[in-house]
């Protein structure tokens, strides 16, 4: 970057003379970098959201909101780089001292652990903590216990009897060498990715073998949760036992405190940021404010592409969506351009009619449910939709659309209600708090027919959308941990997905070709309505510097400074 331009930009952003001068000086020496870090270290980052999102337990919570926090609260054996840009997809050793030794057959991983790492309660990390943490994934019925970790030796017994999970022969502690060995039943090209997400967080061996709920569990990372009230706030402070071992894996962070306040509306959150009372809002700014903000405060907006989609899962085991014709009908009837407008316009979203998002591994443009089927969305086909509903004999049945209480979700839900009404159904919308909506729509006991949900990639692999959201191993009736919200389980497609994952261990390009075909096969069965692919829109205060966006964790909160 041109240093003169950088200096002017620093003044314009209001970061003060020190930041501007720093931009003029090439940061070549470690001493300079340390001095610059020290100048920005400290202060309180103030962030806001309409609602909290459920349990604090990192091995259970599956929301983008809390994963963003877990990045600086917990560590796994491996981690995605805590940096912005394309490098954020890269893996680095975290609690592992180095990259693992992998056997020639790809089924055995040996990890040497770092020394002198302590949990926030002062306990020193030991191999027993790693073994117990992997056992706990099954004991607490983590949403990914089968889909991510079902390939570990002994996992089959743990899935059948979670309470008595031992993973015997699967995860083995070596105290003498401060190491842990993990054995798989078959090679898994994505295994290191799966070890890098919060569900594989390493917790103390004595962590409760049940959902931690509102009680924080100690972690090894730079921060710890000091207090939590899901109806009011979450406060993160520095972990007094943390010493930075890898800036790429777990940076020290700049703020001394991160205060997350829940409540209010998106509108009030925007006003708080513009008035200097908050630094960032989790929820996207209301669409009607974006045009104004792009003119009045363009330097405070950050727009980033996302590997994500908004979709409407249909319960394939409940009427009327247990009839594939009804599911196909809703796909034909939805006007995805209208949904993009509801979300804020083409600058913030693009219509999609398949599972895998654009520019993602395995994506090939294909659109079945449009007026002119082919590679792209064009327009709804209402005549085809009405014909399918008529053939199904389900016209007049009651359908409830369950949304969360954000403006965007309510808007999408209301639109789907209108489409269902046009198709002849007696449709209503049920809006519930965002802190429970995601778990509520997963639990089959709640008999949710249709809902509005979102999915953000855990890591860059097609299986993370298709297998996780529509694989048989992700469907767990009667639990809050059934991320296959549609309850879709097609034996033939499931076998194809497992074959594609196995192929990925030796030929990823060929596997991606298979994933593209699987994407089409899933959409033919239509367990969900793809709506649009969003872009991330962050509104930040003028106090925030060093904004970095990770493809995995989104805005890296603790990498930014407020002084």
UniProtKB/TrEMBL annotation:
InterPro entries membership: Peptide/Ni-bd, SBP_5, SBP_5_CS, SBP_5_dom
Family: Belongs to the bacterial solute-binding protein 5 family.
Coiled coil stretches, renumbered: none
Signal peptide region: 1-33
GO molecular function list: peptide transmembrane transporter activity
Single Gene Ontology BP annotation: peptide transport
Any one Pfam family match given in the protein's UniProt record, by short name: SBP_bac_5
Residues covered by the Solute-binding protein family domain: 90-473
Species, as recorded: Paenirhodobacter populi
UniProt xrefs under Gene3D superfamilies: Dipeptide-binding Protein, Domain 3, Periplasmic binding protein-like II
Keywords: Signal
One GO cellular component term noted in the UniProt record for this chain: ATP-binding cassette (ABC) transporter complex
Localization terms from the record: Periplasm
UniProt protein name: ABC transporter substrate-binding protein
